[in-house]
Amino acid sequence: MSEVSDAHDDRTISRRALLALMAAAAAGGGAPGAGASAIVERAIPSSGERIPAVGLGTWRTFDVGGAAAERDPLRDVLKQFVALGGRVIDSSPMYGAAEGVVGDLAAELTVQDKLFLATKVWTRGRAAGVAQMDESMRRLRTTRMDLMQIHNLVDWHTHLATLRERKQQGRIRYLGITHYTASSYDELERVLRGEAVDFVQVNYSLGERDAERRILPLARERGVAVLVNRPFSEGNLFSRVRGQALPAWAAEIGCESWAQIFLKWILAHPAVTCVIPATSRPQHLADNMRAGAGALPDAAMRERMAAAVAR
């Protein structure tokens, strides 16, 4: 799963900063400290290829119908995402219509070649897996998937063999595994130790820190890129700080909202390659992307950030 942030409106971003981000997106370029060139990039360990450290999830938010009222905001989100330097979009067949919506909007905006598309296989059996992966590629309108992941480790022995074949054939560029609950870390750890994968996607946030004790250090040791889902702990982090003013120290790392604090805390971990918050609102997209620019907190600042939301 990825993170849904739309239900939480107690995120604030200064009007000045928001207007700067909107202007950069509309121009297709970037303003100093706010545009595409300012977003930090991280290397994928298995290849050295660099990707922006803030991506876009699609769980729930892109699962919409064909009506203009439903798709227009998402078109704006995708347009701004690309204009502000975003590339990594994560989806899954589990997310309803999300894959098809991403594919349709990317085609309308002619931005397919600017995206790093990641999706998942979420079924059992080789034949069913192959059929599902083919359908995902059709929906996303691509002949080569950047990243194909095994969703929540479902039938991973079977699908990993298929993914390796497809990578060798050039049909996918990278392969990975995912989960979103700490209760599954034992199995996730076994796969990371015993198999060669390019990516692991895992839940990690100020509200769910289990991954930093086992999965993140292991991924770094094994040279595996890390995608972070649930960066807002399913919205729980916003509930913790509701009504609280932004701390004065937030300015020291360029944060103008709680969302930026939550995301920058994650990005400061050296094992994290990319965080994928989901949204269907352009203003939240601009806010999230801002977290990928400017200074990141050091260890001492990360502790202050953690203390601010501890309950």
Brief description of this entry?
This protein is an alpha/beta fold and 311 residues long. It contains eleven helices and twelve strands.
Describe the structure.
By secondary structure, the chain is of the alpha/beta class. It has a domain at 51-235 and 271-294: Alpha-Beta Barrel (TIM Barrel). The protein contains eleven helices and twelve strands. It has helices spanning 15-27, 68-83, 98-109, 126-139, 156-169, 185-194, 215-222, 236-241, 258-267, 282-290, 299-309, and strands at 3-4, 41-43, 50-52, 56-57, 88-90, 116-121, 145-150, 172-178, 199-203, 225-229, 274-275, 277-278. α1 (15-27) crosses α2 (68-83), α2 (68-83) crosses α3 (98-109) and α6 (185-194) runs parallel beside α7 (215-222). The longest helix is centred in the N-terminal third of the chain and has 16 residues, at 68-83. The chain starts with a strand and ends with a helix. Residues 1-15 and 24-37 have low confidence and may be disordered.
Give me the secondary-structure topology.
Blueprint: E1 3-4, H1 15-27, E2 41-43, E3 50-52, E4 56-57, H2 68-83, E5 88-90, H3 98-109, E6 116-121, H4 126-139, E7 145-150, H5 156-169, E8 172-178, H6 185-194, E9 199-203, H7 215-222, E10 225-229, H8 236-241, H9 258-267, E11 274-275, E12 277-278, H10 282-290, H11 299-309
Parallel strand pairs: 1-12, 4-5, 5-6, 6-7, 7-8, 8-9, 9-10, 10-11
Antiparallel strand pairs: 2-3
Helix pairs in contact: 1-2, 2-3, 2-10, 6-7
